[in-house]
């Protein structure tokens, strides 16, 4: 009975393999595995921080290092802008007060 089950199982496997790899009309083998996982950036997407091509499902950055670098740069730009505005406001206030003293 064990040999009969093995033969039946081998026949089922062979049938499934044959059905999965049937030739298409153009001569290409049919592939029923679904879409191929994306491992390279075929659409030209690049990391916003370093410019390397993005792989897989990454959308903006190639690594956590680049993501954190970009975050630090944005935070520093924000602080620089706030300091510039503060300096401009202090200069404007100084000119206004000096004008009142005269």
Write the layout of secondary structure elements.
Layout: H1 2-20, H2 64-101
What are the salient characteristics of this protein?
102 residues, mainly alpha, 2 domains, 2 helices
Protein model, in words:
This protein is mainly alpha-helical. The longest helix has 38 residues. Helices cover 56% and strands 0% of the residues. It contains 2 helices and no strands.
The number of domains: 2
Please state the oligomeric state of the protein chains shown.
single chain
Average pLDDT taken over every residue = 78
Sum up the overall morphology in one term. Answer: rod-shaped
Number of helices: 2
Main β sheet profile: none
Radius of gyration: 33 Å
DSSP helix fraction: 55-70%
Alpha-beta classification: mainly alpha
User: What percent strand?
Assistant: under 5%
Q: Which sequence of SSEs, written as H and E, runs from N to C?
A: HH
Number of strands: 0
Stretches where pLDDT is under 50 for at least 5 consecutive residues are none
- N/C terminus separation: 114 Å
What's the quick description here?
This protein has two helices and no strands. The protein is mainly α. It is rod-shaped, with a radius of gyration of 33 Å.
């Amino acid at each position: 009975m064990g040999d009969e089950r093995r033969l039946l199982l081998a026949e089922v496997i062979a049938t499934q393999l044959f059905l999965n790899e049937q030739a298409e009309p153009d001569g290409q083998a049919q592939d029923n595995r679904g879409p191929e996982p994306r491992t390279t950036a075929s659409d030209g997407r690049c990391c916003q921080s370093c410019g390397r091509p993005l792989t897989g499902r990454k959308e903006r950055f190639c690594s956590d290092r680049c993501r954190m670098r970009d975050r630090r740069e944005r935070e520093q730009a924000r602080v620089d802008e706030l300091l510039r505005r503060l300096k401009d406001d202090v200069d404007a206030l100084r000119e206004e007060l000096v004008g009142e003293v005269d």
